[in-house]
Recover the amino acids of this structure.
């Protein structure tokens, strides 16, 4: 079984973690201990500091390890910080960045068509995965999917207490909508989701170091689903999405 963690942070955030994961070496040790082969990585500075600096730092942090795949933080183009769409895509190609994060609350923008314009049209057309923290709200996620129904969007960090009523309508309406399982701590919940919607829409992620890497891995390993579906959630789905991205 090949486990690929789709939600990992390196660097030292100002708050929120007991022990930070400062670099690739520390992350690799944790992955070895938890039995995780690869990881999709963002940098603490992308979220808590300068997105542009964080984008540079995550490339530097992952360059020494083929197990670690860098992601970048997305911003609206109206401020000129990311340059043009073509310039952004060229830099992503040069740095082998195949997935993006949106942190609209921390970076002070509204994640919708008015703000993002044709940039997310291009991201959607190229099937580049966009990861969005559930903490930014299901209303935000629902609105951006309504504006860009073909967007490959991964909602990250959703919890078990009644949130199915928010995200199940999105699973039913938007075929490129996915969920990570980092906080889906519901007895029998994973097996029920797989049985109802299929395994292809679910991705293993941990939220490390804010949360333990091994928790959702154990949940997936013990879920009452067949081995083919388990392999898809463990890493197959995420690797497929990364391969589908056209830079």
């Amino acid at each position: 079984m090949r486990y690929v963690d789709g939600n990992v942070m390196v660097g030292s955030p100002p708050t929120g973690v007991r022990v930070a994961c400062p670099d690739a070496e520390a992350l690799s040790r944790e992955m070895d201990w938890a039995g995780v082969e690869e990881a999709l990585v963002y940098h603490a500075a992308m979220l808590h500091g300068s997105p542009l600096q964080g984008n540079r730092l995550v490339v530097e942090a992952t360059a020494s390890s083929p197990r670690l795949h860098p992601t970048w933080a997305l911003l609206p183009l109206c401020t000129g910080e990311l340059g043009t769409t073509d310039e952004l895509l060229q830099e992503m190609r040069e740095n082998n960045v195949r997935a993006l994060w949106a942190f609209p609350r921390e970076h002070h923008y509204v994640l919708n068509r008015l703000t993002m314009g044709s940039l997310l049209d291009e991201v959607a057309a190229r099937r580049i995965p966009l990861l969005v923290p559930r903490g930014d709200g299901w209303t935000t996620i629902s609105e951006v999917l309504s504006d860009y129904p073909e967007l490959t969007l991964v909602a990250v960090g959703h919890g078990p207490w009644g949130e199915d009523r928010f995200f199940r309508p999105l699973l039913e309406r938007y075929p490129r909508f996915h969920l990570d399982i980092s906080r889906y701590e519901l007895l029998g919940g994973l097996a029920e989701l797989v049985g109802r919607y299929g395994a292809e829409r679910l991705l293993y992620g941990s939220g490390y170091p804010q949360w333990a890497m091994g928790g959702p891995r154990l949940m997936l390993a013990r879920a009452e689903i067949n081995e083919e579906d388990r392999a898809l959630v463990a890493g197959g789905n995420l690797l497929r999405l990364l391969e589908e991205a056209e830079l």
